[in-house]
Each structure stands twice: as C-alpha cells, then as structure tokens.
Amino acid sequence: MTGTQSYTPEELAKILKITRFTVYEMIKRGDLPAYRIGRKVRVEAADLDAYINKSKGAGFSVLPSNESTVALPRIGPEELVLCGQDASLDILTRHLQKELPHVRLLRNYIGSIDGLLALYHGKANAVTAHLWDSDSDSYNTPYVRRLLPGHRTLIINLVYRTEGFYVHKGNPKQILDWADLCKPAVRFVNRECGSGARVLLDEKLRIHNIDRDKINGYAEEEMSHLAVASRVARGEADVGLGIEKAALQVKELDFVPLQTERYDLIIRREDAEKPIFRTLLTALRSQAFHNELRGMGGYDLSRTGEIMAET
User: Fold this and answer.
1) Burial class of residue 120 (count of CB atoms within 10 Å of its CB; 0-12, 13-18, 19+)
2) Rounded Cα–Cα distance for residues 197 and 190 (Å)
3) pLDDT of residue 251
C-alpha cells in the first residue's frame, strides 16, 4: 500500500483539465472512489485509470471543459454529444444510458455560447443555453438565430431557474442590485466568457451604464455556478452570480434572486426524427425524469419538454 500512487483533487483537476470542484462532484457522485488521510482527500491512480477506461467505452464520457470546439472530433452515427453544465443534464444522461446502451454519450461541460458554436461547427448535436437578449427581453432564440445562421433548429425547454447573487449569511454588505457590485469594499467573482451568467451580467452592466472596471474581481473567473458559490462561502469573495440551485448546495450562503431564466435544449430540426433524438425527447418528457428533478429542488418544470421556438 505504501507504494501506491495517488492524487489530490487539485492534481486530478490538472490531469483531466477540469476544475477541482468538478472533481469533488465526481467523487461525491461515486464516479471516482476516494479516501481520506486526515483532512486530505486522495484518489488512487488505479481508480483514475479504471474511470478513464470505462469512459472510453459505450456510456457516459466527459470531454474536457476547455476543449476547443474546432478541435473536437466529428460525431459518429452512434454518438450523442451533449453540451452544458447543469446537473439536470447528468440526470438526463443517466436516463438515456438505460434506453440507449449501444450509444456513446459524451458530455462537454462548456458554456452556452461555446455550446451553440459547437452545434454550428458540427461538433455537438444537443446543446443547452440560457442567454438573455436585452433587446427583446427573451432567452436563447435571438442567439440561436445569430450563431447558427441558416440552420433550422428546435429550442426545447429543459427547466426554468432563478439567477441571482450568492452572498454571505445575512448579506452583511447589503448587495441587492447590479450597482452594488461597484461598492469599494465588495469583492466579486465572475463566470467565464460565453457562459449564460456572464452574458446576463455584461448585458445588465451595459443597460445600467455600469463601468466593469469599477467592479473589484470582475476578471476573477470560475467555470461553474457551484465553483462561484464555493468561493463566496469560503470568504474569498463577497458576491457572485449564479443559479439558486447551487446556493442550496453550499452552506453559509444567502441568495438574492434577480431574474427567472429559461434553460433550453437546442437540436437541429433535421435530427428530431432520428431514433436517438426521439428517445432523448421521450426521456426529457418522462415522469421519471421530472420526478428526479423535482426531488433535487431549485427547478421549475412547468414547461419541460415543450418546444419553445423553431428557427
């Protein structure tokens, strides 16, 4: 046992090119066996190899979240590449695994704009988005039209979510609106460019004529809602922007709701009648999937599975 090689979550994050918070989520879900030595979490090299080898076969594989959309391989006839970061997609993928054991399911944890670009380049065939358009006060359709010109798509609702500020318990710095991000004593943590949260923030700053250079921490980026919430909970920032669901998962946080957002799944219209996509839509509309999401909390499923627009 003394000669067994093992890794910390931070080392695994570098190896797999994902954030350490994603590694902790994988350990929490049981995807990666782990153990503790004192306060340190370790994963043995053999378990990492077993996870990678398992992912190479049919089933649920993970593409690196920072992989270039241009560099991704072309999609095979028995593959489904699903882009997006929300936990609901992990659940949907598990339901699809049961119904499509012969199909290789690939998850790419990238933001909304990168997902749409992957769909445009033929590097993904089902992507999610929550992109607010200030001109029309609507979600996703304007971006799909701009980023996939000439392509016919179906925009299907996955869930509605609440976007807002993560703050410390009791909200001691009284961060209630966008202008409060400019308070001198407030430290902010941002999301990466291309994410729906980043688009919402930048649009609100533009509308309210707020100078981003006055926001302490605007250049500090994290790759997920959960990572932003964790930074605030650990006292490394006073506020971050994300969905209510992540706030429910992290202790010592309050949540300031700002806006209800529509989180949609986008596919090419020509794919809708293919067996894999019919199964995808059936799973999305199934009672079993809805029940599992309701059990997690933080989602509005009133229009889940409904076609919101066709482009």
Assistant:
1) middle
2) 9
3) 84
Q: Which domain holds residue 25?
A: 1-47
Task: Judge whether 116 and 70 are in contact, CB under 8 Å.
Answer: no
Tell me the C-alpha to C-alpha distance, in Å, between residue 248 and each of 5, 171, 176, 243, 289: 35, 16, 19, 9, 20
Radius of gyration of the chain (CA): 20
pLDDT in tens, 112-154: 999 999 999 999 999 999 999 999 999 999 999 999 999 999 9
Q: Are residue 142 and residue 180 in the same domain, yes or no?
A: no
- Are residues 76 and 13 part of one domain? no
This prediction has a pTM of 0.78
Residues 176 and 231 placed together within one structural domain of the fold: yes
Instruction: Read off the pLDDT of residues 247-272 as tens digits, 9 standing for 90 and up.
Output: 888 888 999 999 999 999 999 999 99
Task: Evaluate whether 60 touches 26 at the Cβ level (below 8 Å).
Answer: no
Q: State which of 228, 244, 260 marks the end of a domain.
A: 260
Within this chain, do residues 65 and 42 fall inside the same structural domain, yes or no? no
| 36-49 pLDDT tens trace | 776 678 888 877 77
Our count of domains for the chain comes to 3
